[in-house]
Amino acid sequence: MIIVCEFITPSGLERLQQGGLEVFYDPNLWKDRAALKAKLANATALVVRNQTLVNADLLAAAPNLKVVGRLGVGLDNIVQPDLKTFGVQLYFARGINANAVAEYVLAAMLHLARNLAGGAAHVAGGGWNRAAFGGFELAGKTLGLVGLGEVGLRVAKRARAFGMNVVAADPMRLPWESAVEDLEIRLLSTAEVLRSAQFLSLHAPLTPETRELIRAETLATMPKGSYLINTARGELVSQADLVSALRSGHLAGAVLDVVDPEPLPAEHVLRGVDNLWITPHVAGLTAEAQEAVGLRVAEGVLNLLGVA
């Protein structure tokens, strides 16, 4: 039996059902851990998104489990050493939503540069102040990327098409790699990227080294009037320090698709900051990306079960 305890697209569910095994689908099952454990007693595969904590406690209730499929790219809710201990394989959709996230970053930069929504609201309210909403061009500005993986490279490609200069920090990249050379990306240290970037976009994983990478002392090194975009993990940023930098005017604005915690509580330091825009972790949730995630994870789970 394959258990799917969070949302999956209809096409992904249909693909799982084509494998010939019984598929139990309840997108709300993750909310009742005791019921989930009971269902897992006879399961050979479990498919989750980001709400289900897959750890030793859950795996102990699934003696026949062979595969966990993760509908997405982040693995914060998957305790991988526990999977290894229980002999369970993991399949996730690495890089599947990279285009969606890259387009979000470009949309965020255009929003910060041109403020279309603000201009439209101004006109809707009876205004016609052209000087207030002229904005500025992305061409010639410097985009700094912390992390140059699947998403970072796609952001760089789109930014270069807009005529931006791109600098990046990633310990896994080398300056003579074809992707780096072809896009004319300058590889620098993280400190140098922060000092150079008029727009800084975060694409690094959450590790002990990157936790609160963006904090008071690093924010102070960024150019006055620069912008921050975070689509990676909320914990990469000291949120109180970011608010201070925004309110002081050192940073001109920020767009966050990830925060800590999620969902954002009603009473939170990030609330009520005029030059801060927060979206509910949707950068990778385009219709196209979700369709691809469902199909790829379904295929991967069936392949690992040997029934594809």
Record field, number of beta strands:
12
**CATH H level of the largest domain: which superfamily?**
NAD(P)-binding Rossmann-like Domain
Structural class: alpha/beta
Unreliable spans are: none
Order of helices and strands: EHEHEHEHEHHEHEHEHEHEHEEH
Helix content percent band: 25-40%
CATH architecture of the largest domain: 3-Layer(aba) Sandwich
Amino-to-carboxy terminus distance: 14 Å
Determine the number of helices (DSSP H or I, runs of at least 4 residues): 12
Strand share of the residues? 15-25%
Protein name: 3-phosphoglycerate dehydrogenase
Keywords: NAD, Oxidoreductase
Family: Belongs to the D-isomer specific 2-hydroxyacid dehydrogenase family.
InterPro entries: D-2-hydroxyacid_DH (IPR050857), D-isomer_2_OHA_DH_cat_dom (IPR006139), D-isomer_DH_NAD-bd (IPR006140), NAD(P)-bd_dom_sf (IPR036291)
List the helices and strands and how they pair.
Blueprint lengths: L1 E3 L5 H8 L5 E3 L7 H8 L4 E4 L7 H4 L7 E4 L9 H7 L2 E4 L5 H17 L1 H9 L17 E5 L3 H12 L3 E5 L8 H5 L3 E2 L2 H7 L2 E4 L13 H4 L6 E5 L8 H10 L2 E6 L19 E3 L8 H19 L3
Parallel strand pairs: 1-2, 1-3, 3-4, 4-5, 6-7, 6-9, 7-8, 9-10, 10-11, 11-12
How is this structure best described in words?
- Residues 3-304 form the D-isomer specific 2-hydroxyacid dehydrogenase catalytic domain.
- InterPro entries: D-2-hydroxyacid_DH, D-isomer_2_OHA_DH_cat_dom, D-isomer_DH_NAD-bd, NAD(P)-bd_dom_sf.
- Keywords: NAD, Oxidoreductase.
- It comes from Meiothermus hypogaeus NBRC 106114.
- It holds the Pfam family 2-Hacid_dh.
- With 308 residues, the chain is of the alpha/beta class.
- It has two domains: 2-96 and 287-305, NAD(P)-binding Rossmann-like Domain (Rossmann fold, 3-Layer(aba) Sandwich), CATH 3.40.50.720; 98-278, Rossmann fold (3-Layer(aba) Sandwich).
- Helices cover 36% and strands 16% of the residues.
- The protein contains twelve helices and twelve strands.
- Strands 8-7-6-9-10-11-12 form a seven-stranded parallel sheet, sandwiched between helices. A five-stranded parallel sheet has the order 2-1-3-4-5, sandwiched between helices.
- Strand 10, helix 11 and strand 11 (251-256) form a beta-alpha-beta unit.
- Helix 1 runs parallel beside helix 12 and helix 5 packs across helix 7 (150-161).
